[in-house]
Amino acid sequence: MQATTQLIHSIPVDPLTGAISVPIYQTSTFVQEAPGVNKGYDYARSGNPTRATVESLVAQLEGGHTGAAFASGLAAIDAVVKLLQSGDEIVAVDDIYGGAFRLFEQVYKKFGITVHYVDTSDIDAVAAVLTAKTKLIWIETPTNPTLKISNVRALAALAKAHGCLLCVDNTFASPALQKPLALGADLVVHSGTKYLGGHSDLIAGLVVTATAELGQQIKFLQNASGAILGPFDSWLLIRGIETLHLRIRQHCASAQAIAEFLQQHPAVDKVYYPGLATHPGHAVAAAQSKGFGGIVSFSLKEDTQEAATAFVTSTGLFKLAESLGGIKSLVSHPAQMTHKTIPAAKRKAAGVSDSLIRLSAGLEDTEDLIEDLRQAFSTLEKNKHQQNIEWKHISNLPSGSLALA
Q1: What is the pLDDT of residues 50-75, one digit of tens each?
Q2: What is the arithmetic mean of pLDDT over 399-404?
Q3: Cβ 147 vs Cβ 280: under 8 Å
Q4: pLDDT for 181-211, tens place per residue?
Q5: CATH number of the domain at 245-388, please?
Q6: Which residues are identified as catalytic?
Q7: For the chain, what is the mean pLDDT?
């Protein structure tokens, strides 16, 4: 059975009423037959039937043992870090999501957890920073926003040999394209807000574990810390996942075409998309994924925040906004948005330049999206030309006229 068919028919029909859509159990508590005797649920923080359905669904999608749904992607990341203790160390991808960097550096650092940031696409670089205190290797692949590709299988083998865990943020690829647990990872996290939800109408996070033991630990932390996903958002997430494979195919097709367009544009310095044969991680991505995703990043030859700002405020179909993975295309400027919490020097060292722009290809017609980018480049060029005319005019003014103005 194909993955799409299996997914659709793994979502249960309600046994009580026959409802084909999973019911929203909007309740805080459950009546018990006697103290401690219930129908599987006692209090909604500890468990809810709607949330249980989406947790089981995502675990199945990832080929894992246990799924846990959280109130946000960062809450999911937080639960994984709580597996560690003071004195432990993390080796994390250098091109990291700004929210994860903020959590690591401004929350857990003061509790004695140290993070070393390296290019995880370089296995030797990862091996070089592992110590006896390393308990977790943290990667995104593709990374946010320069779309570096890490070899999950090789890193899993390294983690196993070193006796530490490997956690993969699979948000950008989604389980429709990539299954890190099958490649040897111990944990997978998702911002369910993105491709899994798919409609830009919910905030959610997910953790999937490879083993029952890790699953028990994550479920304990979910209940103990309480950052659970509510029943209505759980239902929205289920609804989004139902069309995941169909949406991902279009996201990937548009992103590939956009990347090829950008690669030929004279105003573009570099295009970051693993579907391009020129991408350094293309071969690895092709080997471990069924596709290359819906995110394309690129930098401008005029490497300034001003040029990037002018571009991202000139698009029409690509809406300037945080987030990605929805049905509407989005554009963002990481240096001023998603990665602004990362110090400029560290950000640039990881490849996030001042002019780097990230695109999330939605479900609009591909040619319409390319035309929108084409007109934004034209607007950028017109603005640059106008600025040159104004500067020449100022330069040709008689000496002293600026002071008199």
Answers
A1: 999 999 999 999 999 999 999 999 99
A2: 51
A3: no
A4: 999 999 999 999 999 999 999 999 999 999 9
A5: 3.90.1150.10
A6: 45, 97, 169, 194
A7: 94
Tell me the pLDDT tens digit for each residue of 266-295.
999 999 999 999 999 999 999 999 999 999
Helices 366-395 + 244-263 axis angle, to 10: 40
Query: Does 400 score more than 60 pLDDT?
Result: no
**What is the CATH topology of the domain spanning 3-241?**
Aspartate Aminotransferase; domain 2 (3.40.640)
pLDDT in tens, 138-185: 999 999 999 999 999 999 999 999 999 999 999 999 999 999 999 999
CA distances from residue 338 to 115, 198, 273, 330, 341 in whole angstroms, order as listed = 20, 19, 18, 13, 8
Contact 331, 356 (CB under 8 A): no
So where are the chain's domains?
3-241, 245-388
